[in-house]
Amino acid sequence: MQAKIFNIQSQEDFNKTALAIFKHQFKNNKVYRSFCDLLYKHPSEINQVKDIPFLPIQFFKSRKVLSSLDEIDEVFTSSGTTGSVTSKHFVTDINIYKQSYFKGFEHFYGNIEDYAVLALLPNYLERKGSSLVFMVDDLIRKSKNIESGFYLNNLDELAKKLIELDKKEQKVLLIGVSFALLDLIEKQQFNLKNTIIMETGGMKGRRKEIIREELHTILKNGFSVDKIHSEYGMTELLSQAYSKGNGVFETPPWMQILIRDTEDALTINTTEKNGGINVIDLANYNSCSFIATQDLGKTYTNGKFEIVGRFDNSDIRGCNLMVL
């Protein structure tokens, strides 16, 4: 199944694989099966991807969402406010996650070895169980560049490194959480020519939340770049979508976004209308590939999508807009 997931070439391939995974998860995932039974949804009646039930993401906070009896390799946990219940994603085959983020990055950005990867993710580094830190740490190693690495609070050192590498015309990927990137440009103004700035969203209580357009304008001015890239991912997923500017995201071939009606969660919008974001992540083969998130967005006819807000203050990467 891994070979099928990561070698999808067409919409037909995607649909066939998604329906096969739905049958597998209906049979082997007790939590998902119970949810489907409550909706009176059975694989014998599901012939189209849009008719597959999407499990509300909140189940990852209260249940062990698994479609496998294999031993657990990793447990990824979401960040949350003190006392809040966090999501847990039990991963039985960490190699699927590694394949997903490595192939996903390659799909959008090419060979990781072309980059020096600098990571500014203080809030993620300060806790255990972050899937984002796991991914970035592995990408740093895969870059095979001695200049790659994490930065916590040493912003002066990071600023010096960015300027030094940019002058050498080294391609750099600076991936950081929004508040830390703002902290950096308040310390130092840049004029970068060879650096991709990628924000992972969110102020995490460190700063006042601002809309994405305002954030990107401030960052573009501070780094003197034309575009700000974004990563959209979450604890409950094993795949990421990327935006190369303007907040419009693209998914890798094994991931797709559908928009559900805000008044009827079981109805999928067929027009470019705002609604709840449903994610199909086929890399989630051993947990659940069909997830109804708390995010609000819209899709376009070319398959790209935008985040326009969220239903509540749930923890999320890649979204800075709190309200519609």
Give your account of this protein's structure.
The chain is α/β, with parallel strands linked by helices. Helix content is 32%, strand content 21%. The chain is built from 10 helices and 14 strands. The strands form 2 sheets. Strands 1, 4, 5, 6, 7, 8, 9, 10, 11, 12, 13 and 14 form a 12-stranded mixed sheet that branches. Strands 2-3 form a two-stranded antiparallel sheet. A hairpin with a 5-residue loop joins strand 13 and strand 14. Helix 2 (11-28) crosses helix 3 and helix 9 (178-187) runs parallel beside helix 10 (212-223). It is globular, with a radius of gyration of 19 Å. Residues 314-324 have low confidence and may be disordered.
Concise overview:
By secondary structure, the protein is of the alpha/beta class. The chain has helices at residues 2-5, 11-28, 30-38, 59-62, 94-109, 122-125, 131-143, 155-167, 178-187, 212-223; strands at 55-56, 74-77, 88-91, 116-120, 149-151, 172-176, 195-199, 229-232, 241-243, 248-250, 255-260, 275-281, 290-299, 305-310.
Write out key terms for the chains shown.
14 strands, two-stranded antiparallel ribbon, 10 helices, 324 residues, 12-stranded mixed sheet, disordered C terminus, alpha/beta
What percentage of the residues does DSSP assign to strands (E)?
15-25%
Question: Helical proportion?
Answer: 25-40%
Radius of gyration: 19 Å
Shape: globular
Model regions low in confidence, pLDDT < 50 over at least 5 residues: 314-324
Would you count the extended β strands for me? 14
How many H/I helical runs? 10
First-to-last CA distance = 39 Å
Taking the sheet with the most strands, its summary is: 12 strands, mixed
The overall pLDDT, averaged over residues, is 91
Q: What structural category characterises the helix and strand content? A: alpha/beta
SSE string: HHHEHEEHEHHEHEHEHEEEEEEE
